[in-house]
What we know:
Elements: E1 5-11, H1 16-25, E2 29-34, H2 39-44, E3 48-55, E4 60-61, E5 64-65, H3 70-73, E6 79-82, H4 94-108, H5 117-132, E7 136-140, H6 145-158, E8 162-168, H7 176-187, E9 192-196, H8 198-205, H9 211-231, E10 236-240, H10 245-250, E11 275-277, H11 285-294, H12 299-302, H13 322-341, E12 350-354, E13 360-364, E14 367-380, E15 388-389, H14 394-407, E16 411-416
Helix pairs in contact: 5-6, 5-11, 6-11, 13-14
Amino acid sequence: MKQDMIVILDLGSEENPRLAREIRSLGVYSEIHPHDLTMEELKALPNVKGLILNGGPNRVVDGVTIDVSADLLHCGLPVLCADHKGEAPWPADETDRKKALSDFVFHTCGAEANWTMDNFIADQVELIRRQVGDQKVLLALSGGVDSSVVAALLIKAIGKQLTCVHVNHGLLRKGEPEQVIEVFRHQMDANLVYVDAVDRFLDKLAGVDDPERKRKIIGAEFIRVFEEEARKLDGIRFLGQGTIYPDIIESGTKTVKAVKSHHNVGGLPEDLDFALVEPLKMLFKDEVRACGKALGLPDSMVYRQPFPGPGLGVRCLGAITRDRLEAVRESDAILREEFANAGLEGKVWQYFTVVPDFKSVGVRDGVRTFDWPVILRAVNTVDAMTATVEDVPFSLLQRITRRITSEVAGVNRCLYDLTPKPSGTIEWE
């Protein structure tokens, strides 16, 4: 790695991701590591210029207050105690906080502002080539932003050693499989294998209503599909994934409980037959987009709406049924069409529909109905760690409601979710 680095040692602060982003915004790379990082592990990290000890509400684990080793405190690197044992708390004022952080990073640590996407890409290309050698890589290609950027990075690094596998698990948005085939096989000339596994996934998920179990089933079944595809090819040793930093953080650390297990982090089976290639795993979402731009990907791909790895499976709440899944798919297509017509496409970070596993009384053509509600969600965020709710015009919400309740089978209500993150998460499951 060519970039200087500031290491944040996690002592239970929920502000660690924000702190890492603030340092990166100064042009200096930063990573979060556990409080019990050893001297050997620290020495193995490249170009570390300083340490930040960041305490917080989760610093007491099982009744014991966690701390770093004395070796780290006297390792010869500058150390900043940020709210550590109540000492040297961060300034509340944003300007003062940024100045204090800048002074530490540049003046105390002597770090250089050399964290750029061009440097990151050069580093990752070198690391990928070193890891993969002359072997082949399978990439889980959903067609979303993360996997598309990984594909571009891998193509730049290893070219035709990459085989992209697009799995239609029945949980994709309307028209999505066809779009993925068109873009990657026909426009980008990628080695693309298309797998129709709709029945296989939905059969596995039948009757499963726990969100974590659903994610783990989807993650494990993905791996099994890839293993089967790998056996049809020669020399496949590696699995590429679009894992990003929020996936890892939200899946839990030693001091912060999991928000949810992402299918590509907490959902991977223990008997995984592949070595993972995850070049984006230390990037926040906005940095992934910047990486895609630097790689020359078109805006239509770089700024595409985020889509969860488990797909519509986490938007069809509770046990997935085919008819309710279809209600999610059709209502989502209407929402996206209406947002595009209203000029909101590309202006709102993410918008989608959710169909819960309960019904309510309604009236259609003078006859009593007992159908599902559709929940509309539209949020804005920079890094997916926090999110605000889009102020959608009421007239647009009314038009969307009329269309969904008249065009989507089994639906008689629409609701708009006004909850930011926190206290909610972006997705419902």
